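<amino_acid_chain>
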Amino acid sequence: MARHVFLTGPPGVGKTTLIQKASEVLKSCGVPVDAFYTEEVRQGGRRIGFDVVTLSGERGPLSRTGSEPPPGKRECCVGQYVVDLASFEQLALPVLRNAGSSSGPGPSVCVIDEVGKMELFSQPFIQAVRRTLSTPGTIVLGTIPIPKGRPLALVEEIRTRKDVKVFSVTKENRNHLLPEIVACVQSGGK
């Protein structure tokens, strides 16, 4: 039976919005939720990068266009975006480290948005995601990209786990998936 729930779909289809709505519903039902999200950063109508945002409201850059990568870090680029690993790890890793530490009865939910190409430059993040997926009493609600180009090892590992249910989000179904996602997460800890 699936314990963890991941959403996949093309960029801009609404995965982050769905996950944020599901988090709100779960919190309102008394489920402990900790999370980080990636949000687009726009300037003058153009996307210039992404920020990492935690549920507690902390924010920092995940990536930016036009910034120079640190010396020797040329490999930390995705297209036009330069990934700020230090900022990402400073915000995302504590969320994953705290997974499963809620003292209440029942499972807690750890939201990971997203397990994607930019985030996977971080080896500590990869290890922390694997650890979180194996933490008893923790349900992961996350997003993964659709398969495109060379497979991303951790994404494929997540996609093929027997304890993971993957929802494909489309423009046609995105407005109807919320109840099913919430129900799946709520039953995941049982």
Notes: The chain has a mean pLDDT of 90. Residues 7 and 143 are 5 Å apart (CA to CA).
